[in-house]
Write a structure and sequence with these properties.
By secondary structure, this protein is an alpha/beta fold. 37% of the residues lie in helices and 22% in strands. It folds into 2 domains: 276 residues, Aldehyde Dehydrogenase, Chain A, domain 1, CATH 3.40.605; 191 residues, Aldehyde Dehydrogenase, Chain A, domain 2 (3-Layer(aba) Sandwich), CATH 3.40.309.10. The chain contains 14 helices and 22 strands. The longest helix is centred in the first third of the chain and has 23 residues. The radius of gyration is 24 Å and the shape is globular. The protein starts with 10 loop residues before the first strand and ends with a strand.
Length: 496
């Protein structure tokens, strides 16, 4: 069975499909290890051409100078074209990422499509702010009549943006580079993970369909050398990256020489605090459900379970029972609740940390191996450790797999201290029957988001981003487009 969009065997540069020096790379379905297609592999020459096209389109093309209404119209048509391909995009994500269908439709496709539509609507409300009018002496003629002065504070696009994305939520991440960057009037070079190239290349089809001016959107694949060029080239004004902490450090280092804007959404080791008054069964269900989203390959997932010692044993037993009911397998099956990791290299990393947990003295509650019935695919057991200290590697490092750790606490202050004792600060959660106390605790947690009692039932259109080493800047939310603009003051006299 052919997977949608796997026929795309060229790069998208300057409004045209360009051959990638004849190089291709097999793209695997991580659940079956079967090849779903042979994707083009870009190189530095491809990246150079894409940067040049984006630079030309920004400096001499119409895109930056269109009205926001005109750009919004293009992006609304792009959104409609993507919605029309919803089923195809979901089928691609299931095959390319190995994500379960429930998570794919809800979090990988539908939620981000709804959010970018909100961004389009909100972009129409941006207006210049007025500088207060002031009557001052004329500096050229102090004894003469006074003059009136004022001005406006405006926002304009940064320029050429390089968007570099990870493999775990590829359609969402690519969408979250394309829409705000282009809505704000920038031009874009998009580079996806080599594991998930088709989730980016499909945007080339959409750009052609809606008649996007050439050079406004360029899509190049490739490895480290392509990413390094995009991060260091002086023709690029901004790098927006979503991925690992280590790569984020490299990008920031490479970008420093040209002092370009850097926007980073990086890793996390987020804590869920379960107070003594919580509904423990519901808390355990939420913990396991969150831990297994996309096989734990999510930067904002809650993987440190800080549980009050009076209910810790109860929480662990509920969680263990739930893990035993979680169906793991090929997400082509609608009933599967968790699919595989993306590649064998990622499974090896997860297994390394599971071994570290055992070596450091944590108690393995369940999991720790590979599902026996699944001989093919990069599957790993849902794994839970108890009796974990917060200084253990499994409590400090981002494992990026379905591995949860339970840490006991005796007071709210201790729980907050443990939650904040991390170099990351992306997300957090608190479960409690006392909503007011949970709210006060949330304000003390150093993280970009905190969900109380599971949140509002969906991911709202609110800012996403981190404190500390979880990143710089925010995605989504009412100020999203500001991340991709510069502020300019224009000062003038009134009356002449």
């Amino acid at each position: 069975m052919s997977i949608p969009f796997t026929h795309l065997n060229k790069l998208y540069i300057d409004g045209n499909w360009a051959t990638a020096s004849g190089n291709t790379e097999a793209v695997l379905n991580p659940a079956t290890e079967e090849v779903i297609g042979h994707a083009p592999v870009g190189d530095t020459a491809s990246a150079q051409a894409a940067i040049a096209a984006a630079r030309e389109a920004f400096d001499h093309g119409p895109w930056p100078w269109l009205s926001i209404t005109e750009r919004a119209d293009f992006m609304r048509r792009m959104h409609a074209a993507l919605v029309a391909r919803r089923e195809q995009i979901a089928a691609l994500v299931v095959a390319e990422v190995g994500c379960s269908q429930g998570v794919t439709y809800g979090m990988q496709v539908d939620m981000p499509l709804a959010h970018v539509l909100t961004a389009i609507d909100q972009s129409l409300n941006t207006e210049a702010r007025q500088v207060p009018v002031a009557a001052v002496a004329n500096p050229m003629n102090p004894a003469g009549p006074m003059i009136l002065g004022s001005g406006s504070i405006e926002r304009e696009p940064i320029g050429v943006v390089a968007g570099i994305t990870g493999y775990n939520f590829p359609f969402l991440l690519n969408l979250a580079k394309v829409f705000p960057a282009l809505l704000a009037g920038n031009t874009l070079v998009l580079k996806p993970s080599p594991f998930t190239p088709y989730s980016a290349l499909l945007f080339g089809e959409i750009a052609d369909e809606v008649g996007l001016p050439k050079g406004v959107l360029n899509i190049v694949t490739g490895g480290v050398e392509v990413g390094s060029l995009l991060s260091s080239d002086p023709r690029v004004d901004m790098v927006s990256f979503t991925g690992s902490e280590a790569v984020g450090v490299s990008i920031m280092t490479q970008a420093a020489a040209t002092l370009k804007r850097v926007h980073l959404e990086l890793g996390g080791k987020s804590a869920l605090i379960v107070r003594a008054d919580a509904d423990i069964q519901a808390a355990a269900l939420g913990a396991v459900a969150g831990l297994t989203v996309n096989a734990g390959q999510g930067c904002a997932l809650l993987t440190r379970f800080l549980v009050h010692n009076s209910v810790r044993e109860q929480f662990v037993q509920y969680a263990k029972a739930l893990v035993g009911q979680w169906k793991v397998g090929n997400p082509a099956d609608h009933s599967v609740m968790m699919g595989p990791l993306i590649r064998e290299s990622q499974r090896a990393k997860v297994e390394h940390f599971i071994a570290r947990g055992r070596e450091e003295g944590a108690t393995l509650v369940c999991g720790g191996g590979r599902p026996e019935a699944l001989e093919r695919g990069f599957f790993i057991d849902i794994t839970l450790f108890d009796n974990v200290r917060n200084d253990m590697a499994i409590a400090q490092e981002e494992i990026f797999g379905p591995v949860g750790v339970v840490i006991g606490f005796d007071s709210d202050d201790e729980a907050i201290a443990i939650a904040n004792d991390s170099r990351f600060g992306l997300n957090g959660g608190i479960v409690s029957a006392d909503a007011a106390t949970a709210y006060r605790m949330a304000k003390r947690i150093r993280a970009g988001s905190v969900y109380l009692n599971g949140g509002g039932g969906t991911m709202p259109y609110a800012p996403i981003g981190g404190f500390k080493r979880s990143g710089i800047g925010r995605e989504f939310g009412p100020d999203w487009l500001k991340e991709f603009t510069e502020e300019k003051s224009i000062i003038y006299p009134i009356g002449r």
